[in-house]
Design brief:
The protein is mostly helical and 444 residues long. It has 24 helices and no strands.
């Protein structure tokens, strides 16, 4: 596995890939050969795809889009060679989604066009139609919608186009298209976007009217929640109260009250903030079953974790019957601290992550990346190894590899590092190779 780790760093550090016709004459392995070798070393093809996609995304975050595109092309080849049809579809959907994140919408569409129309591919096509519309490529979006036909899948994509119209300010056009939709689920998605657009603009009567046109469901509750918060922000407490009472979901009522508590706190209205929080907890604990109670309390706790109110979030989380809720809140607090540069604060929470390896990864991943950004590569790798599952460990490992080599002007050139890095590459690289090798070897 040490060879595999070296390949991972080579992929991260390679600066140029020669054209395919020169591969045999090339001494330094280009992306394609490195990934082919990587494919023979990792037994699970899904994880090989994960490595390629995550390295591509890591490079894009550092501004190296051409390198990302080359990696995705090689990764798509690995995906197409998978024997399981279901795994192949999932892998190519990952590649298509990565192209979309790179704003390479045409390549995303090209990958999707090779797949049969299924529930998963239709959802990806709908998301792409939204992205195309948002980026001004409406004719391309409409062509994609048309390719799905007058089917439920086509309706899914049409709803996403309408959502994009609403977000772009074309609210009347979006409303007319929403009302013309026949199927309730897709009509609700489109009308929710209209209601949220009206709420953002302070047109509360119009937001309420859009919600009233919707069929019962989570989207209608989301529409009333958006209108409730908009009303409270402008000081119309009475209207906010009436709109909140129309939220059908106990979970959304609880989280809306928690958001109102935070808004009241920001307005220096401590008594209102406390009242809203008490009502949020009461609403959550009044849900119909324990699973719903835990979900609602978790949502309220996460609202406070996202606002860096960790002690309040933990206090609410401990009211649940599910110990993993506390882990989720701890992980969210770690992520928030790491992402905002409070690395030591995030590290102090590691020892408290005693349950829920999947949820713990959500805190350990951003902490590992934050350490790598500070040049603390050894600590970053050590933190990444705390993540139990290899699937969840690969994303931070890819970013660590790219960040480590991104600090060198020339990969492997002894001691040639960017100012402020600290350690010399020639001395650090072997240790990093060994550490990444262990990290790839002992994940489950």
């Amino acid at each position: 596995m040490k060879t595999l780790a070296g390949m991972l760093l080579l992929v991260a550090c390679t600066t140029e890939a020669p054209p395919p016709e020169t591969i045999k004459e090339t001494i330094q392995p280009p992306f394609e050969l490195v990934l082919l070798d990587l494919a023979t070393s990792l037994p699970d093809a899904r994880r090989r795809v994960d490595v390629g996609v995550e390295l591509a995304l890591a490079h894009s975050e550092l501004g190296s889009v051409p390198r990302s595109s080359e990696l995705l092309a090689s990764t798509a080849s690995i995906a197409r060679g998978m024997t399981s049809g279901e795994d192949r579809e999932a892998a190519l959907l990952r590649v298509a989604a990565a192209h979309e994140r790179l704003h390479d919408l045409e390549r995303s569409a090209s990958v999707l066009s090779t797949l049969p129309i299924t529930e998963r591919t239709a959802e990806a096509s709908a998301q792409l139609a939204y992205a195309l519309t948002r980026s001004g490529k409406e004719q391309r979006a409409q062509a994609l919608v048309a390719s799905l036909g007058r089917t439920r899948y086509g309706d899914m994509a049409r709803a996403q186009v309408v959502r994009a119209w609403a977000e772009l300010g074309r609210v009347k056009e979006a409303l007319d298209a929403s009302k013309a939709m026949g199927a309730a689920p897709t009509r609700n998605i489109a009308l929710l976007a209209v209601a949220e657009a009206h709420a953002r603009a302070g047109r509360l009567k119009d937001a309420q009217k859009a919600a009233e046109w919707m069929d019962a469901g989570i989207e209608r509750s989301q529409a009333y929640a958006a209108a409730t918060l908009a009303a409270y922000r402008i000081g119309n407490v009475e209207l906010a109260s009436r709109l909140r009472d129309r939220i059908e979901s106990a979970l959304l009522r609880a989280t809306t009250l928690a958001n109102m508590a935070e808004l009241a706190d920001a307005k220096k209205n401590a008594s209102a903030a406390r009242s809203f929080l008490d009502r949020a907890i009461k609403e959550a604990e009044g849900a119909t079953n324990q699973a719903m109670v835990d979900a609602a309390l978790e949502a309220v706790a996460m609202t406070y974790a996202d606002l860096d109110r960790f002690e309040r979030a933990k206090e609410i989380a401990t009211r649940t019957k599910n110990p993993e809720v506390v882990t989720k809140v701890l992980a969210r607090a770690m992520a928030r601290a790491a992402e905002t540069g409070r690395v030591e604060e995030a590290r102090a929470l590691i020892s408290k992550l005693k349950t829920g390896p999947v949820w713990a990864a959500q805190g350990l991943d951003p902490l590992a990346v934050a350490l790598a950004k500070q040049g603390r590569i050894d600590e970053a790798l050590e933190t990444a190894r705390e993540i139990v599952h290899l699937e969840l460990r690969i994303p931070p490992l890819a970013r660590i590899a790219v960040l480590a080599c991104g600090r060198c002007k020339t990969a492997g050139d002894a001691g040639v590092c960017r100012e402020g890095f600290g350690a010399e590459c020639a001395h650090a690289l072997p240790a990093w190779v060994e550490a990444i090798g262990k990290a790839l070897d002992d994940g489950i």
